[in-house]
Amino acid sequence: MWHIIVTSTPQIFWAGIKFTIPLAVISFVIGFIIAVGTALVRISTPKGNSVTRSLWRLLKWFLSFYVWLFRSTPLLVQLFIIFFGLPNAGIQFSAFTAGIITFSLNTGAYCSETIRGAISSIPESQWEAAYSIGMTYRQVLFRIIFPQALRVALPPLSNSFIGLVKDTSLASSITILEMFMVSQQITAKNYEPLLMYTIVAVIYALFCSVLTILQHYLEKRTSRYVKVAGE
Amino acid sequence: MIRLDHVDKQYMDHHALDDINVTFEDNQTTVILGPSGAGKSTLLRSLNLLEQPQSGIYQIGDEKIDFSKELSTKLVLRVRQLTGMVFQSWNLFPHLTIMQNITEGPIYVLKQSKKLAEARALQLLQQVGLEEAKDRYPSQLSGGQQQRISICRALAMDPEYILFDEPTSALDPELEAQVLRVLLDLAKMKQSMVVVTHNIEFARRVADKIVFLENGKIEFDGTVDEFFNHPTDRIHEFLTGMQF
Ligand SMILES: Nc1ncnc2c1ncn2[C@@H]1O[C@H](COP(=O)(O)OP(=O)(O)OP(=O)(O)O)[C@@H](O)[C@H]1O
Ligand SMILES: [Mg+2]
Predict the structure, then answer these.
(1) Per its UniProt record, what Gene3D superfamilies does this chain match (chain B) (predicted)?
(2) pLDDT tens digits for B118-173?
(3) Residue to mutate, B20, B32, B41, B46, ligand 1, most ligand atoms under 8 Å from C-beta
């Protein structure tokens, strides 16, 4: 048994380094950017002439639709549509690209709601105080609102990130050789499902623990200014 | 000088400002009095362009604004720099230190160097007796201290006018006194100010001129002496109502 652990653990871990972590990190970064953009458009009020206002409204409607779509359908189904389904429509991606696209869009949809909520949780009076000293919309957003909203959004964003790391196991079903896929393959040879799936579970837990530690560190950093009850 | 001509602001079915014609002189303190819901905050917020009335002309310094037109961002930002705003609930930026709260505008709006902005901030902090608080966060200060910091934040932008919207209504009497002393100092230094307050005694002491607002209309615009010593029936009733 010891021999099995020593030989298969590095294989599974390596699959994590090669696929699981890149899938999760790249998708989260892209998803986060999508989320911020989506949230900002959705909280904005259309301005300008009637044409730009209509286009803006259309964009808002489209983004609401996107968020609804990705939150209301299973991730596994999304993966299947993008990897196995789209080729029928003439759009073909490699498995890894299909994974990145699906995970990014899925994370983006969830995180955009987190960020939208966090921004709305900052009182209107903060916007007014910043505007009253002559700051522009961008300045108010980046210097006053985002730093405060980030503190609020950090725990739910971390949840999403940790969820994403675990959800990458679904990528095995679209032929990506990530950790879970590799542990399945090894199990098929050595008939040790309990051992193999326990090993892969421990490695997932390890990756997620690193994220949890990172979360606590960031929470401390972004909360320096807050009086915490009991302190 | 600030001058408003025929300024009208409506919310849905409510006339918050109803044909306002008034001037606020330079180097003077104008106190705005009036019952709750009279439109005092709406008036101040219109001067800072946090609200835009539907119609009327607003002149401030060399700028002339027609409220019935869409205002350019540039003009809005310019007018906001001319009019510092101090809010009832001070609204400091909680994630910034006291020093950063005061230098935020000078550095990022006025594009001053950090060094210059901090030197000026320190001077303002001394003026309100809070220089030792510069590295603290707002949550570590009392309400009265926070309000004095928010006055510094407004002053740091070197505005022509400072608008105070009930700056002490959220404070205990002792803390209120600390803030009112700062206002009296500013008045002595001939800072142009418009102050909304419910503190009648303070109004009497600080005002060069009093404006009485009710139901969105200006019911009185004159000297302190006239207001207190020769009140109309309505003002008499208002003043009596403020006593107990
Ligand atoms: N955003 C808004 N939407 C609708 N009505 C509003 C809005 N802001 C103010 N009002 C109404 O306009 C009127 C004037 O409000 P304003 O806040 O200017 O009064 P105020 O004189 O400052 O009163 P207070 O002494 O209570 O602060 C009130 O009747 C208020 O209900
Ligand atoms: Mg008010």
Answers:
(1) P-loop containing nucleotide triphosphate hydrolases (3.40.50.300)
(2) 999 999 999 999 999 999 999 999 999 999 999 999 999 999 999 999 999 999 99
(3) B41
Question: Residue A188 C-alpha to ligand 2 middle, in angstroms?
Answer: 73
Structure tokens given for A51 = 């044409």
Task: Say if A228 falls within a structural domain.
Answer: no
User: Number of folded domains in chain A?
Assistant: 1
- B140 interface with A at CB cutoff 8 Å: yes
Nearest Cα of chain A lies from the Cα of B107 at a distance, in angstroms, of 11
Q: Closest-CA residue in chain B for A124?
A: B91
B48 vs B85: CA distance, rounded Å: 7
Q: How far is the CA of B69 from the centre of ligand 2 (A)?
A: 26
Q: Which pair of tokens denotes residue B86?
A: 């101090």
> Per the CB < 8 Å rule, is B109 touching A144?
no
Neighbours of A211 (CB within 10 A): 17
Is the residue at A68 inside a domain?
yes
Please give the Cα distance from A103 to B19 (Å, whole number).
57
Ligand 1 — pocket residues by CB below 6 A?
B 11, 14, 16, 34, 36-42
- With CA atoms as reference, report the closest residue to B146 among B178, B106, B113: B178
Question: Using an 8 Å Cβ cutoff, are B164 and B86 in contact?
Answer: yes
The single-letter code of the amino acid at B158 is D
B108 interfaces chain A, CB cutoff of 8 Å? yes
Q: What is the pTM of this model?
A: 0.91
Residue A176: which of A96, A121, A94 has the closest Cα?
Answer: A96
B139: nearest CB among A130, A133, A227: A227
Please name the amino acid found at residue A47.
Answer: K
Contact A131 B94 (CB under 8 A): no
**Prediction ipTM score:** 0.94
Q: Is B91 on the interface with A (CB under 8 A)?
A: yes
Tokens of B209: 């001129």
Which residues, in sequence order, are CB contacts of A117 under 8 Å at separation 6+?
A: A152, A153
Q: Closest to B80 (Cβ–Cβ): which among A132, A151, A227? A: A132
Q: What CATH number does the domain containing A53 carry?
A: 1.10.3720.10
Helix axes A21-43, A50-72, angle to 10 degrees: 140
Of A132, A143, A224, the CB nearest to B85: A132
Domain residue limits at A217: 2-222
Residuewise pLDDT in 10s, chain A (231 residues)? 888 999 999 999 999 999 999 999 999 999 999 999 999 999 988 887 889 999 999 999 999 999 999 999 999 999 999 999 999 999 999 999 999 999 999 999 999 999 999 999 999 999 999 999 999 999 999 999 999 999 999 999 999 999 999 999 999 999 999 999 999 999 999 999 999 999 999 999 999 999 999 999 999 998 888 865 544
